[in-house]
Design brief:
CATH class: Alpha Beta
CATH topology: TIM Barrel
Distance between the termini: 34 Å
Number of domains: 1
Number of strands: 7
Largest sheet: 7 strands, parallel
Strand order of the largest sheet: 1-2-3-4-5-6-7
Helix content: 40-55%
Order of helices and strands: HEHEHEHHEHHEHHEHEHH
Strand content: 5-15%
Radius of gyration: 17 Å
Length: 247
């Protein structure tokens, strides 16, 4: 819950300028912002008018198409605003709004039904990590959301260890890779080899310009879901340009 519509316009403009000045290849590394619902129309106008290559999505999506669901935002509403993506099951939604695997599964289907790509967030708390070990909870969350989906479904998975969000702690490259590999294996078991290979798996949890290169060297990490660092244009641009400063 950051930035009103005017601040969002300024942010996206500056991000586009910064990446443009650095000759960023948007076809090679996609850059997506997730502003609050109240900012989406303003961001749409800016992106379309200035032909900006930054894409945008929503921080949440309703399971429902329409009706008596006050405060909900349907996937069709998002599609009409040109949104490409919607986050589903972000750890804050699960923690503060009680979203469970069943709700997340419904949101994944609602997004897909309107041509929005859901980014399904999965991850464990420190207590769950200690109780069940690495990957058990994220794999369970993913498997529940995949139940009944077509192998052709266009989804993105984001592994966000809750214990590493906003704490300054970050999973080691090996820890992140271990869980992301388990998630890809679960995709393979549920929807087949082709789906497992084409689906992007992101890592999110205190991602910064200083650690992005190491994370992106891992074979099962295809991108990053950036939290606090995304509020700083220079830092976010540095993360987006990881290929240009990778060692």
């Amino acid at each position: 819950m950051n930035k009103d519509h005017l601040e969002a316009i300024a942010f996206v403009q500056k991000l586009a300028w910064t990446l443009g000045d650095a000759h960023h290849n948007f076809d090679e590394v996609e850059v997506v912002v997730f502003p609050p619902f109240t900012d989406l129309r303003s961001v749409q106008n800016l992106v379309e008018a200035d032909k900006i290559s930054v894409k945008y999505g929503a921080q949440d999506v309703s399971q429902h198409e329409s009706g008596a669901f006050t405060g909900e935002i349907s996937a069709q509403f998002l599609k009409s605003l040109g949104a490409s993506y919607a986050l589903v099951g972000h750890s804050e939604r699960r923690q503060y709004h009680g979203e469970d695997d069943l709700a997340c599964s419904g949101k994944v289907r609602a997004a897909l039904g309107s041509g929005i790509t859901p980014i399904l967030c999965v991850g464990e708390t420190e207590a769950e990590l200690e109780a069940f070990g690495p990957s058990a909870v994220p794999v369970r969350q993913l498997t529940a959301a995949l139940d009944g989906l077509s192998p052709e479904a266009d989804i993105v998975i984001a592994y966000e260890p809750v214990w590493a969000i906003g704490t300054g702690r970050v999973a080691t490259e090996e820890q992140a890779e271990q869980v992301c590999a388990a998630l890809r294996s679960a995709l393979r078991d549920s929807l087949g080899e082709t789906c497992a290979e084409k689906t992007r798996i992101l890592y999110g949890g205190s991602v910064k310009g200083s650690n992005i290169s190491g994370l992106m060297r891992q074979p099962n990490i295809d991108g990053a879901l950036v939290g606090g660092a995304s509020l700083d244009v220079a830092e976010f641009a540095t993360i987006s340009r990881f290929k240009q400063h990778a060692i």
